[in-house]
Amino acid sequence: MKICVLIKQVPDKDSKIVIAADSKSIDNSNVTNIINESDNYALEEGLLLKEKHGGEVVVCSLGGESSNEIIKTALAKGADRGIHFIDKENGYKDVLTVAKIIAKQLEDSKYDLILSGLQSDDSGNCQLGLLIAELLGTSHSSLVMSTEMVEDDTIKIKQELESGWFQWTELSLPASLTIQS
After folding, report:
1. Single pTM value for the model
2. Hey, which residues does 154 pair with through a beta bridge?
3. What is the Cα–Cα distance from 37 to 18, expressed in whole angstroms?
4. For the chain, what percentages of helix, strand and coil (3-state, to nearest 5) are there?
């Protein structure tokens, strides 16, 4: 099984935020960057699937040079390879633009699963996994709590619903899953 896990670098919520001298931006010199919390859950799910069924886990991140650090962290946790889509502008991009950039890079890679976190700690838009699925023409599920392989081309996923209810659904592969926890 070939699994891609999308990870994003975000500021640690415990970092001290200081306004830069221009009074228009943030001084990043004291900001510690980490892997987005939901993306950590996606990485863990990918590694569990690899452990049970074999295959490869590839982490991918779009960002500036500092994104190399979170890729190294993911590799230390057990990912097999890391791919850094370098963003030379390293400025804000809306989620559709990010999805188009990532989808273009992944379209020929033939991943069975693309896992992403439910939302990012910095923008919290909850759309990346869904947009990737649409752009790549794969099946998709959001609010995924756990996964089980049924056959080589089918995955069973547990989704959280309202009021503490859960639902099991089967999806055909390839699929994009947005992992909640």
Report:
1. 0.89
2. 151, 172
3. 23
4. 30, 35, 35
